[in-house]
């Protein structure tokens, strides 16, 4: 397999101005300076900021660069530079081969032209002849699953239909370089899975740059990770899981309680996770398949001890993945000096690798009426070498039956 470098970025920087008036003025100054052979300065002028600063990476054929970071980190700016939509202020970008891009919903489509006409337009931009597009147009339409609307103006398409057509054109044309932004999040689940199967097919012959806020999607196809933070490289390397861990740590919400209900009978005092790994950050780390031991302290002014406690574990996208239920009827609760302390133990916790948050709910055990609720009051991280999509990584023993004959 040809492992040539198809995308190479060296010392890339891009500045923007927060003020439109100053942006136009600086643009004129820079244009005049370039005509005189004067290089633009690295120093920021009033109201300017770096959207990207000193970015370096390369992507070879058969590799996928997962580009991650928070909103405003510089991901879309970088993709637009790679696609030639805007020019950098400093640095060099080398792109070898045909470039297919899906970086903005409806980008590259003429809204008053039909889907079929836009296929030919996009193919021509990629450098394909009419005869080559003729051979691919039916497969593009079939993949997009919009045949009955293909001769309708694109301006009448839904967002999902635009994504279908855009990805079909970008992928079915089999470009050397494929740039994909967060637009796949618009499509339905069935089509997204279909897109990933197509990516698996073309990736051996393509260099892919993939932008997403969905870490399962990134870990699914990325061979290396570039994490941007305020326009700078926070992490780059082939250790995909390590880059994803840094992404999650960057977005941890902290340990402040978000109380959504409190009738005054009971209130959370502290949450402590035991049996944790030492960490340089404030985020407690727990090894996969180790015991989950958590100590919870409450303050209470009530003598009513008929409380039902529920701990809910949610993933970083705040999807509940598990809960622990404790009824006071199973064990007498003791309140000493308006203090109530509980310790929960769960053996061999098998949550998959990632960052999780704990919410605590308290109800009256008889009436089931809510008494107290605190969302995302505590965060912790599960450490493991395996990165999987599913929230649970269950330990199991496979038994092979060798008694049968073939």
UniProtKB/TrEMBL annotation:
SMART domains: AAA. InterPro entries: AAA+_ATPase (IPR003593), ABC_transporter-like_ATP-bd (IPR003439), ABC_transporter-like_CS (IPR017871), ABC_transpr_TagH-like (IPR015860), Bact_Polysacc_Export_ATP-bd (IPR050683), P-loop_NTPase (IPR027417), Wzt_C (IPR029439). Residues 35-255 form the ABC transporter domain. CDD domains: ABC_KpsT_Wzt (cd03220). Keywords: ATP-binding, Nucleotide-binding, Transport. PROSITE patterns: ABC_TRANSPORTER_1, ABC_TRANSPORTER_2. It holds the Pfam family ABC_tran. GO terms for cellular component: membrane. Belongs to the ABC transporter superfamily. This is ATP-binding cassette domain-containing protein. The lineage of its organism: Bacteria, Pseudomonadati, Bacteroidota, Flavobacteriia, Flavobacteriales.
